[in-house]
Protein backbone atom coordinates (compact mmCIF):
# COMPACT_ATOMS: atom_id res chain seq x y z
CA UNK A 1 0.00 0.00 0.00
CA UNK A 2 1.15 3.54 -0.62
CA UNK A 3 2.24 5.92 2.08
CA UNK A 4 -0.35 7.85 4.04
CA UNK A 5 -1.45 11.01 2.26
CA UNK A 6 -2.46 13.99 4.38
CA UNK A 7 -4.92 15.12 1.71
CA UNK A 8 -7.00 11.96 2.16
CA UNK A 9 -6.47 11.30 5.89
CA UNK A 10 -8.98 11.66 8.73
CA UNK A 11 -7.84 11.28 12.37
CA UNK A 12 -10.18 9.27 14.59
CA UNK A 13 -9.50 9.33 18.34
CA UNK A 14 -11.45 6.61 20.12
CA UNK A 15 -12.52 6.90 23.77
CA UNK A 16 -9.63 8.79 25.39
CA UNK A 17 -11.85 9.38 28.40
CA UNK A 18 -11.14 10.74 31.86
CA UNK A 19 -12.25 7.73 33.91
CA UNK A 20 -10.80 5.17 31.52
CA UNK A 21 -7.27 6.48 30.97
CA UNK A 22 -5.92 5.92 34.51
CA UNK A 23 -6.53 2.18 34.02
CA UNK A 24 -4.69 2.00 30.69
CA UNK A 25 -1.23 0.42 30.75
CA UNK A 26 1.30 3.18 30.00
CA UNK A 27 -1.64 5.55 29.54
CA UNK A 28 0.48 8.72 29.76
CA UNK A 29 2.61 7.60 26.82
CA UNK A 30 -0.47 6.60 24.83
CA UNK A 31 -2.10 10.01 25.32
CA UNK A 32 1.18 11.83 24.63
CA UNK A 33 1.48 10.08 21.27
CA UNK A 34 -2.18 10.72 20.46
CA UNK A 35 -1.64 14.40 21.30
CA UNK A 36 1.18 14.53 18.72
CA UNK A 37 -1.14 13.09 16.08
CA UNK A 38 -3.85 15.55 17.03
CA UNK A 39 -1.50 18.54 16.99
CA UNK A 40 -0.14 17.55 13.59
CA UNK A 41 -3.66 17.06 12.21
CA UNK A 42 -4.56 20.54 13.48
CA UNK A 43 -1.41 22.10 11.98
CA UNK A 44 -2.12 20.41 8.64
CA UNK A 45 -5.86 21.15 8.92
CA UNK A 46 -6.91 17.52 8.51
CA UNK A 47 -10.38 16.33 9.53
CA UNK A 48 -10.53 15.08 13.13
CA UNK A 49 -13.21 13.20 15.04
CA UNK A 50 -13.53 11.80 18.54
CA UNK A 51 -15.70 9.10 20.01
CA UNK A 52 -16.79 8.92 23.62
CA UNK A 53 -18.21 5.70 25.03
CA UNK A 54 -20.96 6.16 27.60
CA UNK A 55 -19.66 9.61 28.55
CA UNK A 56 -22.01 9.86 31.56
CA UNK A 57 -20.07 7.05 33.24
CA UNK A 58 -16.60 7.36 31.67
CA UNK A 59 -16.39 11.15 31.44
CA UNK A 60 -15.39 13.28 28.50
CA UNK A 61 -12.16 13.27 26.53
CA UNK A 62 -9.02 13.90 28.63
CA UNK A 63 -7.76 17.48 28.84
CA UNK A 64 -4.63 17.12 26.69
CA UNK A 65 -6.78 15.80 23.82
CA UNK A 66 -9.77 18.08 24.41
CA UNK A 67 -11.74 18.82 21.27
CA UNK A 68 -11.60 22.32 19.88
CA UNK A 69 -14.34 24.18 18.05
CA UNK A 70 -15.09 22.49 14.74
CA UNK A 71 -13.90 19.06 15.84
CA UNK A 72 -16.59 16.40 15.96
CA UNK A 73 -17.35 14.48 19.18
CA UNK A 74 -19.48 11.41 18.54
CA UNK A 75 -21.25 9.86 21.51
CA UNK A 76 -21.82 6.13 21.44
CA UNK A 77 -22.91 3.18 23.51
CA UNK A 78 -21.90 0.38 21.13
CA UNK A 79 -18.30 -0.81 21.18
CA UNK A 80 -18.13 -0.67 17.36
CA UNK A 81 -18.57 3.04 16.63
CA UNK A 82 -19.71 2.11 13.11
CA UNK A 83 -23.00 0.89 14.59
CA UNK A 84 -23.81 4.55 15.22
CA UNK A 85 -25.12 6.27 12.06
CA UNK A 86 -23.69 9.64 13.17
CA UNK A 87 -20.23 8.06 13.18
CA UNK A 88 -20.57 6.39 9.78
CA UNK A 89 -21.89 9.64 8.29
CA UNK A 90 -19.01 11.63 9.81
CA UNK A 91 -16.45 9.16 8.44
CA UNK A 92 -18.05 8.66 5.03
CA UNK A 93 -16.05 9.18 1.89
CA UNK A 94 -12.80 7.67 0.73
CA UNK A 95 -10.61 8.98 3.54
CA UNK A 96 -7.92 6.88 5.11
CA UNK A 97 -8.75 6.65 8.80
CA UNK A 98 -5.80 7.13 11.13
CA UNK A 99 -7.00 5.55 14.37
CA UNK A 100 -5.74 5.85 17.94
CA UNK A 101 -7.58 5.05 21.14
CA UNK A 102 -8.60 2.84 24.00
CA UNK A 103 -9.25 0.11 24.68
CA UNK A 104 -7.43 -1.59 21.84
CA UNK A 105 -9.14 -4.95 22.30
CA UNK A 106 -12.67 -3.58 22.67
CA UNK A 107 -13.78 -0.32 21.05
CA UNK A 108 -10.72 0.25 18.87
CA UNK A 109 -10.74 -3.33 17.55
CA UNK A 110 -14.47 -3.46 16.88
CA UNK A 111 -14.50 -0.01 15.26
CA UNK A 112 -11.50 -0.82 13.05
CA UNK A 113 -13.14 -4.07 11.94
CA UNK A 114 -16.32 -2.11 11.19
CA UNK A 115 -14.40 0.48 9.17
CA UNK A 116 -12.58 -2.21 7.22
CA UNK A 117 -15.88 -3.97 6.53
CA UNK A 118 -17.17 -0.69 5.06
CA UNK A 119 -14.19 -0.49 2.69
CA UNK A 120 -12.08 2.13 4.47
CA UNK A 121 -8.31 2.07 4.48
CA UNK A 122 -7.33 2.06 8.17
CA UNK A 123 -3.99 2.74 9.83
CA UNK A 124 -3.80 2.16 13.59
CA UNK A 125 -1.16 4.11 15.50
CA UNK A 126 0.13 1.39 17.81
CA UNK A 127 1.97 3.73 20.17
CA UNK A 128 -1.18 5.86 20.57
CA UNK A 129 -3.44 2.89 21.29
CA UNK A 130 -3.74 1.16 24.65
CA UNK A 131 -5.50 -1.37 26.84
CA UNK A 132 -5.43 -2.18 30.52
CA UNK A 133 -3.00 -5.03 29.79
CA UNK A 134 -0.23 -5.29 27.15
CA UNK A 135 -1.46 -8.78 26.17
CA UNK A 136 -4.89 -7.44 25.20
CA UNK A 137 -3.34 -4.56 23.24
CA UNK A 138 -0.92 -6.83 21.39
CA UNK A 139 -3.62 -9.38 20.51
CA UNK A 140 -5.89 -6.60 19.23
CA UNK A 141 -3.17 -5.07 17.04
CA UNK A 142 -2.38 -8.50 15.58
CA UNK A 143 -6.03 -9.18 14.86
CA UNK A 144 -6.55 -5.77 13.24
CA UNK A 145 -3.49 -6.35 11.04
CA UNK A 146 -4.73 -9.82 10.07
CA UNK A 147 -7.95 -8.22 8.83
CA UNK A 148 -6.17 -5.57 6.75
CA UNK A 149 -5.45 -2.62 9.03
CA UNK A 150 -2.01 -1.11 8.73
CA UNK A 151 -0.18 -0.94 12.05
CA UNK A 152 1.90 2.22 12.19
CA UNK A 153 3.53 4.54 14.72
CA UNK A 154 2.93 8.19 15.37
CA UNK A 155 6.21 9.22 13.75
CA UNK A 156 5.48 7.10 10.68
CA UNK A 157 2.20 8.96 10.26
CA UNK A 158 3.74 12.40 10.79
CA UNK A 159 6.57 11.87 8.29
CA UNK A 160 4.22 10.34 5.72
CA UNK A 161 1.81 13.25 6.10
CA UNK A 162 4.71 15.63 5.43
CA UNK A 163 6.19 13.63 2.57
CA UNK A 164 9.21 15.91 2.30
CA UNK A 165 11.51 18.06 4.42
CA UNK A 166 10.47 20.92 2.13
CA UNK A 167 6.86 20.83 3.37
CA UNK A 168 5.73 24.26 4.60
CA UNK A 169 4.86 22.79 8.03
CA UNK A 170 8.00 20.64 8.41
CA UNK A 171 9.50 22.68 11.26
CA UNK A 172 6.19 22.86 13.14
CA UNK A 173 5.72 19.10 12.92
CA UNK A 174 9.36 18.47 13.95
CA UNK A 175 8.68 20.42 17.15
CA UNK A 176 6.12 17.76 18.06
CA UNK A 177 8.69 14.99 17.73
CA UNK A 178 11.49 16.61 19.74
Automatic annotation (TrEMBL):
Boundaries of every Isochorismatase-like domain copy: 11-155
SUPFAM superfamilies: Isochorismatase-like hydrolases
InterPro entries registered for this protein in UniProt: Isochorismatase-like_dom, Isochorismatase-like_sf, Isochorismatase_domain
UniProt-listed Gene3D superfamilies: Isochorismatase-like
Name the UniProt record assigns to this protein: Isochorismatase family protein
Organism whose genome encodes this protein: Roseovarius tolerans
Amino acid sequence: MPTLDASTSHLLLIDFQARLMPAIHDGDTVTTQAAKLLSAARILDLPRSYTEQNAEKLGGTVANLAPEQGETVLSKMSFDACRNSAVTEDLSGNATLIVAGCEAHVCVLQTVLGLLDRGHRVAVAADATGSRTPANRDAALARMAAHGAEIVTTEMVLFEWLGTAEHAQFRAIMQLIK
